[in-house]
């Protein structure tokens, strides 16, 4: 099952996976998922949580649809922990990305939004606390690309051991 709020993104997915009967594409709002309680063994979200109006509500919905013992994995832009890298990344997002996007993109404002949304997004520890607050346990994260991106993970309590 692949779900997205954007019909355009769903159409791209359908085209790229034409002929694959194992993938169903569903238009869905992460804050009000159209799935049954405890329906999925695993839920994932990549580069989307920071675009949701209420990310804590979305995490509660992801928890709701995850089976006991099931997993959550979220890949999202993050905050580099090393000050020098964080400074360079911030300068890139504030100054370089807007200039490059004005020259190369037909939709430069989208890149301005991208930079702003990344800079406004909380750090890894805060997102981890949101996952715990939603009910997930065994929460952790792994920094990728010097912390520019982080892979967050957790498990819904319950279910069989060793899942």
TrEMBL record:
Gene3D superfamilies: Vaccinia Virus protein VP39 (3.40.50.150). Pfam families: Ubie_methyltran. Keywords: Methyltransferase, S-adenosyl-L-methionine, Transferase. SUPFAM superfamilies: S-adenosyl-L-methionine-dependent methyltransferases. InterPro entries: SAM-dependent_MTases_sf, UbiE/COQ5_MeTrFase, UbiE/COQ5_MeTrFase_CS. NCBIfam families: MenG_MenH_UbiE (TIGR01934). This is Ubiquinone/menaquinone biosynthesis methyltransferase. It comes from Naasia aerilata. The lineage of its organism: Bacteria, Bacillati, Actinomycetota, Actinomycetes, Micrococcales.
């Amino acid at each position: 099952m692949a779900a997205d709020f954007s019909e355009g993104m769903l159409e791209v997915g359908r085209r790229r996976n034409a002929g694959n009967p194992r993938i169903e594409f569903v238009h869905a709002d992460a804050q009000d998922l159209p799935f049954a309680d405890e329906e999925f063994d695993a839920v994932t979200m990549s580069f989307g949580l920071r675009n949701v109006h209420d990310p804590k509500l979305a995490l509660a919905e992801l928890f709701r649809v995850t089976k006991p013992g099931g997993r959550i994995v979220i890949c999202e832009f993050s905050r580099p922990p090393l000050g020098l890298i964080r400074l360079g990344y911030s300068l890139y997002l504030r100054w370089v990305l807007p200039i490059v996007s004005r020259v190369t993109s037909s939709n430069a404002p989208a890149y301005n939004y991208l930079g702003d949304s990344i800079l406004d997004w909380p750090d890894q520890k805060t997102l981890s606390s949101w996952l715990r607050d939603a009910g997930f346990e065994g929460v952790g994260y792994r920094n990728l690309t010097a912390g520019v991106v982080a892979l967050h993970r957790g498990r819904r309590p319950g279910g069989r051991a060793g899942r």
